[in-house]
Amino acid sequence: MELTRKTAAELSALLAGGEVSAEEVTAAHLDRIAGCDDRVHAFLHVAADGAVAAAREVDRRRAAGDELGPLAGVPVALKDVFTTIGAPTTCGSRILDGWQPPYDATITRRLRQAGAIILGKTNMDEFAMGSSTENSAFGPTRNPWNLSRVPGGSSGGSSAAVAAYQAPLAVGTDTGGSIRQPASVCGIVGTKPTYGGSSRYGLVAFASSLDTPGPLARTVLDAALLHEAICGYDPMDSTSIDAPVPPVVAAARQADVSGMRIGVVTELSGEGYQPGVMARFAEAVELLESLGAKVTEVSCPNFRYALPAYYLIAPSECSSNLARFDAMRYGLRVGDDGSAGAEEVMSLTREAGFGDEVKRRIILGAYALSSGYYDAYYGKAQQVRTLIIRDFEAAFGQADVLVSPVTPTTAFGIGERADDPMAMYLADLCTIPSDLAGNAAISVPCGLASEDGLPAGLQVMAPVMADDRLYRVAAAAEAALTERWGHPLIAEAKGLGTSEPWFSGERGGSA
User: What angle do CA 501, 216, 505 make, to 5 degrees?
Assistant: First the structure.
């Protein structure tokens, strides 16, 4: 039995039926990580001892007859932006290299309470700032489909871990598309819950009005199971929504779109979109229509301003949030030889500890918030944000959900956009509007682009706290695509995860 090939739902059933132990499942995934992560580099820290100990505890509780949840004994990878007792949290930055938090994030705590086995912490763009995971201070993660391509970002390590069968589940964060975009280019499922639906307590902040933790998985049902486990009201987070988690698991099992109104956003297509990506998107929409959905075009005219608005709002918030990294209390400290004053130590530490992209965004944000420019830049961007929210409200008056491609292209080459920030930022063109508005959105694989044989994704967007609609539509699309191509996952079309083919020169060369 090849346990790493099983979905989370399948593992849950095997564990509950006593056919396999949590320790066996954990060992299989740790072996998989040991066997291939030197080439993928999905993990920054593998918590092997802690994972085995947690698995043994799940097995003990199951043998004692304790009532356990569906994820008890199921492994999960955790983006290295969530605080974890007993393991470092670096945020992919030298300025936090080796830092051991004194407390668990709410997401971390809920995973432990659910009995999920945390395998380790995954690589990411530094402080979640990027779309390729090339901005990590500890080296890039590589896309399992082709090791010369990026896995997306900033949750690229989490996405690659799931795509490479190193973990059936992972948790990422979405600020401008950092769950959905890597999910799309790695051929897996990724959800951005409604803002406030998942707790930010213990999440090292990038942009506080945008950051949203969410699940990554290989199937829609698996994503829904993780969504229910990590989401819900948290009094420790002042932006947390005090309302029940939408019934996402039930919706994923329903997988019925008959009678649903699906709006295709006209502004999220056209020039600059890879033809193969658009072809797969169009086919997915046709499939949904064949299942009884009513498809119509919807215009959201202010979406075209989402990218510039985001790149004023997010850097402004990051320039404020990252001011806490001052070398005085924790983390890296440079120049503290007794001769330098506090200000010089702060300056030297930030120069050495922050990468180029983080510095770029801090400078942009500080400028946008500065006296004389605040109203012209940050204030105007917030007004545009309001217009985007109104566009969503009008669109959801015409449709139950909205759909678009997830990102304009498939995975691009490592280094290809490193010196062109604007080209990099365009990867989030379709995902940013939902972050600015705070509504829910999901990426589900919709096929392979004909130009390069790499995955493309279908994005489904739903109103605030209507997250269950995402899973209903995504599960229907997944089932229809499975029936069309005759395999349970889009990723299987290339033999991903079998012995070694995805490391061969034929599929992109070795790392």
Answer: 15
Question: Is 317 a member of any domain?
Answer: no
Q: How many separate domains does the chain show?
A: 1
Query: What is the Rg, in whole angstroms, of the alpha carbon atoms belonging to the chain?
Result: 21
Strands (E), 308-420: 401-405
Structure tokens at 90: 């670096």
336 backbone φψ class: left, alpha, beta (φ>0; ψ -120 to 50): beta
Distance CA 436, CA 382 (A): 9
Burial of residue 11, with CB atoms counted within 10 A of its CB: 0-12 exposed, 13-18 middle, 19 or more buried: buried
Sign of CA pseudo-dihedral 90, 95, 97, 98: negative
Strand ranges across the sheet with 43-46: 43-46, 117-122, 75-79, 169-174, 212-217, 189-192, 440-448, 455-462, 401-405, 261-265, 294-298
The reply to whether 490 falls in a domain is yes
What lies within 8 Å, CB to CB, of 44 at 6+ separation is 80, 88, 90, 92, 120, 121, 122, 123, 136, 138, 157
Task: Give me 412's structure tokens.
Answer: 């691009």
Indicate which residues carry an active-site annotation. Answer: 79, 154, 178
The CATH number assigned to the domain holding 486 equals 3.90.1300.10
pLDDT of 491 = 44
Eight-state DSSP code of residue 379: I
How many Å apart are CA 335 and CA 322, to the nearest integer?
20
Burial category of 272 from C-beta neighbours within 10 Å (exposed 0-12, middle 13-18, buried 19 and up): exposed
Query: Which residues of the chain fall short of a pLDDT of 50?
Result: 487-511
Return d(Cα 147, Cα 471) in angstroms, integer: 30
- Range(s) of the domain holding residue 182: 24-305+383-507
Residue 448 pairs with which residues in a beta bridge? 455
Cα torsion for 471, 79, 507, 405, to the nearest 10°?
40
User: Using DSSP, how many helices (H) and how many strands (E) does the chain show?
Assistant: 16, 11
**AA letter at 386:** T
Q: Chain-centre distance of CA 367, in angstroms?
A: 29
- Distance of alpha carbon 317 from alpha carbon 206, whole angstroms: 7
